[in-house]
Records
---
Amino acid sequence: MRNYISADLKRICRRIPRAIVLASVYVILILIVVLSAGQNTWNSVTFTLIVEQYIAALTVIFGIIELISVYSDDFKAKTMQVAIGTGLQRDRVVFSKYTELLVLTFADLVLFAAAALISAAVVKTGYSADQAMEISVLCFKVWLSIAGYSSLSMILIFFTQATGLATLLYLGLAAKIVSALLSLLTDLDAIQFLHLNRLLLSTMLDTFGSRLVLNNFNVPSFIGILVYIGIGYAATVFLFRKRELEF
Amino acid sequence: MGESVISLHGIQKSYGKHKVLRGVDLEIPKGDIFGLIGRNGAGKTTIFKTILGLSDYEEGSIDIAGFDKDPDKGRGRIGFFVGSDFFDYLSGRENLEYYRQLKGIKDRNEVSRVLKIVGLDTARGSFKNYSMGMKQRLGIANALMGSPEILILDEPTNGLDPQGIADMRHLFQDLKKQFGMTIIISSHILGELQNTADRFGIVNNGIIERVVTQEDLKKSDNCVRITVDDRERARKVLEEAGIKVLGEEQEARSLEDYYFNLLGGEQNA
């Protein structure tokens, strides 16, 4: 299993189109900060606001980049079949691929935070420890969001053995289209009193993130997020166990 | 028949209402080259998939290298070639380097070793620019990595030129002779398979209809092939000896003979 993860990570990190897209994300951030720094209202608070606005888009951007990087080429080259055919258990294949996604997105976010610091240094913007902490917390929330949404998308990935539908689902979840649709249901007068809205993954992520910024680790929402991750993961393992794999 | 390295007992498998395997019983003797033959849709690929754990089955049991309770452990001893799918943006060497790491093979020279075996050690460029035959060879090289005890090959000579087919035949025979490797080959090129394998499993309608050996094929009551320098005189001699010649036909030279005579090559290397 470790061999599979390490071989995949090395291969993915050498993928030039992925590197170009990721580099663009960092360069655009730095450019936005540098260009905004010329305005009269510029200060460390505006800097933090820009970075935070940018971070909000990263769940979609990093999630989709890495979802495709981890799975798409794998399906084309049928490496899962090789891994299973040479003795790797299927549940370990699922674990390996999920771990790869988490490792890659974590690294992306660390690099993003570094890019934010570099951009601050370039425009000589000072920022407080609290502001730096706020950026870190929001990055962590993005990572947790990717972990949650990708665990649900993984069910489709492993079941269909393709990334198309799963990427659409991920986009729907990360862009909060799915939660908006579900809110239409949970807000119906007949069931509104149940407050089902708070049980949505997106609501839990928002609650957890906003509390964490205030140095408050919200245990119920964190557990709720873990439950979603667990459900997605367990459903994937269950469905993949019997899935026929083509040569 | 010696010790079995792969045993399938009563394997049954359906796709919906369509039963693909109807109780497959198969013993692959250790150190044999075993040919699996049958029509398209007979069940050969599904048999391979069940052995490799890529397809689930409803009933029966599989024993791989003595691991009947946990075939996944046995699968660690298998190298297989079932198609030449690789990362098209990597070179052949880089692809195999990836698989060397995935399979946990420590020896860094392993990639060079297997590339040399299949004649791709000097190949350059990315996989997407490889010819069909090169892709096929790379797939076989991948199967050979780590010197597995068991080799499973699905149509390994598809896309190879006659020299390539002959090279592969010699390679498989060498692997058997030198390392005692057990090799299971599925192929529609029966003449080629007959030249390569020791034993043949005939798959028909989801079962192993029969397993025959080279000896079985040679056994025949009245039909023998005698090559003579004077056909007319041979017939006369036979008639004088009171042996009735019931049939006689001019045998065509095989295309392979003709090809190698014309172009040269290592048919019997």
---
Amino acid sequence: MEEFLTLLLAGISVGAVYGLIAIGLNLTFWTTKTMNFGQGSVMMLCAMLTATLIARGWPQALSILAALGIIVVLMVFTETYTVRPALKIEGSMGWAVSTLGVGIVLQGCAALWFGSQALAFPDIIFSAIDDVVVFGVHVSLQYIAVLVLALALVVVFELLVRGTVWGRAMRAVSMDSDLASVIGIPTRTIVLGSYIGSGILAGVSGILVAQIGGTVDPAFGFELVIFGFVAAVLGGMGSTTGALVGGIVAGVLQQMVGGYISSAAQHGMAFALLILILVVRPQGFFGQREIVKV
Amino acid sequence: MLEIRDLIVSYGAIEAVRGVTLTAAPGAITAIVGANGAGKSSLLRAITGLAPIKSGSVLLDGKDITKLPASRRAELGLAHAMEGRRIFRQLTVEENLQLAWQFGRRRNAWADALERVFVTFPILKDKRRVQAGLLSGGQQQMMIVSVATICNPSYLLLDEPSLGLAPIIVQEIYTFFTERCREDGTTVLLAEQMAALALKVSEHGYVLRQGRVVREGPSKELVDSGLVAALSSAYL
């Protein structure tokens, strides 16, 4: 029983982070119907930079902010030079190749600068062995902290999108970008903003996962971004609630398969789940249906 | 004054507008008539900054705006009611209006702007909290022209405002913008397939065929010269 509950909490906690990754992918999908296929490298780079800066004696908070700052610059570069030119050609899928290319180059650079060995990721709030006992079950504080932080970020994100002028402008761009620019919404700024937001969500997710896993290496983001993608498709592309639920389902299943069947099988889980959902319910759990009156 | 000089709009190898020069007189309605595919929509979309301009220029009050992004042109007082019922379907009527007001050139208070819309089209007041996608075609067109005019634009581009509407609604929409033009001194550029309708309300008209201006002149002269009958027989 205790093993089950431990796996469940680990699954929910990691799953909430997958949800964050998925929301990051959704964000750019809304504004441009594109996503950064190099997102895995963004997560890796953010976690690696944070670990390196802390190891050099920088304060933790400052290290995280500096790493996120570099991610923002990277996302501005990605949007300006790999996505925007590709979108000038109607129906072009060039962005998929160019963003993936940037990701692969970054992964190579990380291996060159930091070495291809895994770096130890420092404990930020709690260490891996901190736990509390709830009803006789040991519960890891680290998992709880990650879960709370991920959920808080989702709530903040939803408030920004629903409650602010810029959030509404972003939804307008996602619905009809021509109409949005005709009524005066600066669509280029909104698209750039969505890429920056997406990068920040990915960077924070990278730090959270590295915190749980304890290490980070150049190939770290690859599997994560696939789980993020599975979460987004599972929940229904574009839906925030869907991304969170999809992430948690994917996370729990992954942990259960890893715990009860084999830890080798858990790596294939993401793909199995993706194939299943695309066959059974392609629009995902919360896929939006548009109401159109003819 | 809105001036277009030697404008060429091309989508890859296809040229939709092939060297159009045109002037919309201030405070008046100028009509652009022509068959389907004559380049009317591309011309309007180039003026607002949506269609790719290959060469030529667009001048607003003598200022060259050819290179400005669409959102900056909106700030200069240029509004465009596009063809094809372009609205934010999932947002309510009021949210649609508010977005246009917030990001447009804000000169009037929100409450006044909204009141003016509701006085003109009372049905929109009843439907203010309804998703715009659920309105009837006529109500959507009323909302579209209201969204375009909520910031009292100096220039209003209208693309096929009569398309797919019942005659009584067409009448209402036409009355709306002819009165707006007279009251506020708005410069209107009206693209229409229904040449008879457009030339009746406009002062000056341009006839477009395959991306070129083939005739122009005072609307009355164009009507008297039998143009309407010629155009109608061309596509009926």
